[in-house]
Amino acid sequence: MTDRGPTPLPPHLLAPPDPAALPLPPPAAPAAGVRLLRGAVYAIPDGSRPLTVDLWLPEDATGCVPVVVFVHGGAWRTGLRDDLGPRFRHWRPGPFARLAQAGFAVACPDYRLSGEAPYPAQADDLAAALAWLHTRAAGLGLDTARTVLWGESAGGHLAALTALTGHTRTDTATITGCVTWYAPTDLPGLAEDRPPGAYDPHDPASFEAMLLGGAPADRPEAARDASPVTHVSTHAPPFLIQHGTDDALVPARQSVRLAEALRAAGHHPDLHLVTGGNHLWAGLADEEVTGCYARTVDFARRRTDVAEA
């Protein structure tokens, strides 16, 4: 009898599980009328950690509800998927629970940070999150044909990039609107928009360089491709663009550039330059910060046909 050694394992046993078939996390109840599924796996990139998403769902919805996908900031380098920034951490209920109480599902996905993978990994991850939501829509009670993207800072950049390139993808959610808060939109233009000496496009240690995998000046095509303004077309969804006039990290001119590009393509973006606002809405009174949030919710209502309660 010939000893042939162990039988090789079938390839399907070595493959990672399909995130669309994994069980969902048990629900929590963080606020009245809200069901929270925290940490559902939506993608398992090769060589990387599993990527997860939090889902804030209305408890007593009578039909499929529209979706707001929130993309966190953190200079593409850090951040928490459910953190809207320091001005909102004391809210009870929190901003995402309030959206669920208003009749939206809210998805807050992770994405690979620049220390894990360079661009376009982050955009690929958001596309995967949208595809996962679309695949799981029936079981979760989601209407992904009414999806609004919303991001702050680096997350606003990624939300805009996804909204402006989403028409090239299939089997995913339909983006009916996009909200950006103080987001970079034109990476090559940062050298012109920031004060003299505040930004060096040749610096390999800048946040933009770490995103691109090299200094923007040395990777001009990547910097251009990673800029939302590059991808503006007649297919762009409606935009709400909010930015503080006194932003010390991302100049408000970056949001103006996006609005100008959208207008040149025949669109009518809603641009709000908030007087005195710094990054993360520092420098604004509480009622002004609440106004930025309320403007976002109102835009999401209009873009998804959700009536005010």
UniProtKB/TrEMBL annotation:
Establish whether keyword Hydrolase is in the entry: yes
Keyword vocabulary terms for this entry: Hydrolase
Keyword NAD included in the entry's annotation: no
Q: Where is the composition biased (Pro residues)?
A: 7-26
The protein's matches in Gene3D superfamilies, at most eight in alphabetical order, are given as: alpha/beta hydrolase
Q: Where is the BD-FAE-like domain?
A: 54-262
For this protein, the record's InterPro entries field holds:
AB_hydrolase_fold, BD-FAE-like_dom, GDXG_lipolytic_enzyme
Q: Which GO terms describe its molecular function?
A: hydrolase activity
Q: What's the domain of life for this entry?
A: Bacteria
Q: Where is this region: Disordered?
A: 1-26
Name it: Alpha/beta hydrolase
Q: Which organism is it from?
A: Streptomyces luomodiensis
